[in-house]
Amino acid sequence: MKSRILLAGLLLTAGALTVQAQAPAKKILTHEVYDSWKSIEADSISHNGKYLLYAVNPQEGDGVLHLRELGLSTGKTFARGYRNAFTADSRFAVFQVKPSFAATRQAKLKKKKPEEMPKDSLAIHDLAKGSTYYVARVKSYKLPKENGEWVAYHLEAPLATKAAKDTSKTKTATPAPAAKAPAGRPAAGGSGKKEDGTELVLRHLPTGQEYRFDRVTDFLFSEKGNMLFFVKAEKDSLHKAGVFAFNTSARKVMPVDSGRVSYKNITTDKAGEQLAFVASKDSTGKDIRYFHLLHWTPKDNRARVVADTAYKGVPSKWMVSEHAQLGFSDKGDRLFFGTFPRPTQYEKDSTKLEEDKVSLDVWTYRDPLIQPMQLKQLEREQKRSFLALYDVKGKKIVQLATLEIPDVSLNPGRTADVAVGSSNVNYLLSVGYDTPSRQDAWLIDLKDGSRRLAVKDTRGTPRLSPAGKYLYWYEPSDSSWKAMSVKASSPVNLTKKLKVAFYDEQNDVPSLPDDYGLTGWTKDDQYLLVNDRYDLWRLDPAGKAAAVNITDGYGRQNNLQFRYVSLNPSLRTVPVDDRLLLRTLNLKTKDAGFYTDYVTKTGVPQKVLMEPYSFVSVRKAKDSDRLVFRKANFKEYSDLWVTNTAFATPQKISNANPQQSEYLWGSVELVDWRSDNGTPLEGLLFKPENFDPKKKYPMLVYFYERNAETLHNYRSPAPSASTINIPLFVSQGYLVFVPDIIYKDGYPGESAYHSIIPGVQSLVAKGFVDEKNMALQGQSWGGYQVAYLVTRTNMFKAAMAGAPVSNMTSAYGGIRWESGMSRQFQYERTQSRIGGTLWEKPMQYIENSPLFYVPKVETPLMMMANDNDGAVPWYQGIEMFMALRRLSKPVWLLVYNGEAHNLMQRKNRKDLSVRMSQFFDHYLKGAPEPAWMKKGVPTLVKGKEYGLELIEEPAKTTPTPGQQPTATPTATPTTMR
Description:
Number of strands: 57
CATH superfamily of the domain at 667-951: Alpha/Beta hydrolase fold, catalytic domain
Oligomer: single chain
Helix content: 10-25%
Strand content: 25-35%
């Protein structure tokens, strides 16, 4: 009997071992997995909290839109759905459907015309019935904010061969659809091309009844959905361009205006009882045309012109701007629009041939902005407008912004009787090296446009409180929050007497530190709520009541950082009596979660949950206590979860990347050490799955200032824009170390050395790092530090630097071409941290420039410097390359043509990812050298051959007399200076 039991046990054990042996082994992540790794986008919850929409999209290919009825385990999916939304009554889901990736690609290969390319469709899904109505060839759609009965969708121009649509359920609100409008009339701005309209369909969702309007170029719902406004293009002399209104209750079209050439910027008030737009009768195609501001109400037979060049209140020789965004106040009593001075010379010179015209930029020391900045801002300046208002009841115009005070801001809702005008005109010459920039601020009376100087020479940004009672700002000059009653003449320092810092306590650049941000205002401007590093504070803007720490110092005492989460985006203030949800981060462990507290009630914050995750995108259903949020850590993608406002029994809804379980992934942990001067530091160490501390692993060291707080971030396998993909390298058996760096002004390179090297040494001392096979990688500021480190130590076997600055002396005088700004500011006051001009601190510029120490480099270096980089001039990479090449140092430079600072095109990202892997695998794992490293890629075969094939080396033989073996960089850290 015993033998039978033993035999049975052996058989069961053997069977278990057989099943276990048959379990598929996990795979290593490769570059081929990128396209299949997915992300969740465009998630939205219905107002009643019952339904959730979210798209799961691969990095390349066709995505899937998911519809879930929360509380149930089932749902529906829709291929390629996007731009999704629920109607306000939670009865319908509406979304567009993309053409398939394959169909679009085939059309591109066949070089089809734009109008022949595959187009979007529209889907309208009835949530109760489960049925879906589809419409082909839809450009866009809109829903009213507060009315769930209507949808308006704009159709593409029909193809000549397209069959007529069944209109058996359609009522025609205008004459039959017109033929395509004739081309030839210039659009605004002198483009020379007339915009053709297409059919707009208004659909009543409960009944399916549709109303169609031809030749439409623009359309807009009122918030309540009681009105649909739309613009029609001109067809011919009998069918003029115009603006129309459709009353959704009366089901009736009302003409608003017609007969003009161009209509722009239609906008309505909150009640849907007023409409405003700008229009022009000018059909000449000039660069600048005269526009009128028009105003309409349903009581009017036609829209009335309320502002143009000749109207009182518009400055002499000024015009109504076609580019300004129009807007009504919440009360509907004010209409805000834009004006601008009519240029004295704005017509093109037709007396000269283009070949005879001189193209020249004249730089002078008197220019307020240097020429590159002027050129970058040219289009913005050409479209700049100056804020003005039309008093709807008083029927008068008040000009608010001027050439001297060009920027004017209003309180939320635009209900206050004052505005804030700001100007940096007096300080423009210092832009580029004086940061934070300075400005003056004025209070402007909206009734008559009068103004008074409120704040002189501030480095902050004065704004109006929600109720418009106070001007408030953070002042970097003295690191304090200030407020000033709009009726007072001087500000009050609200935080001067408090013993905590409201400036960034970790600031390590030679510039004034930023603040920790604003929580908001309470109703009627009773309190201003601001943040310190840890806690929330309640300030009396009048400066009479003492400041109160809302979170009772609990954050500072426990290393917790609290930040308010608004669960009602429509609220402009923070509720005083309601419980506040606070997103919380443990600054020591990096765990995150939520606490709750009150603005006015005493007592410490109450914990809701804290977990080793990151939490983002917390949103509440408008008419329900249901919450949707996302949480993630290194091992778990940021999937969607639902719960209630008490965070009871959270439920995971999505599973975007189930395939991850098939791959070797790894883990991450927080590590700490001390810099060479004894400063405590921390960083992240990523380890391969099934890590064995008794083994030795090659290690990549990546860095960019501070990253420890990203401990619980998920990182998708994806092709690289410039930096290593951590999951990929960890899956392939690498350790990845991400150290934090603390800087000393004037010594950025030295600071990196004294922070990073001790961190690396502390890990080597643990015994599991293969100290003979370590490498560096960084991009931009990180790329500079990589270039600097290889001049200071040869402990790394290889290094990759993306967009590095190699010579601070030449870079200092250059231009950041993406913005047109001088590069001086970043060396003197920001990231480069020198803290003075080139002539004030020449030796520090030289000592921090890798170029001057290239003879010391023994580490093979791969660089990327793209020829359209607008942040770091690509010649910085060239300088480093040419110096190393001349010294016969192993160096490679990748230049992606037309690419920016970080790669934008996916094909290039994939290419860089492969090359970085080949580079590091060759040096740290002994993999064969690819052809591009060994032989290069001659320009004769550019675009035909890429040199990615690996070249197997013949077996090594004993060196012949006189032949020297290739030197291998030593693993011992060495100071070279």
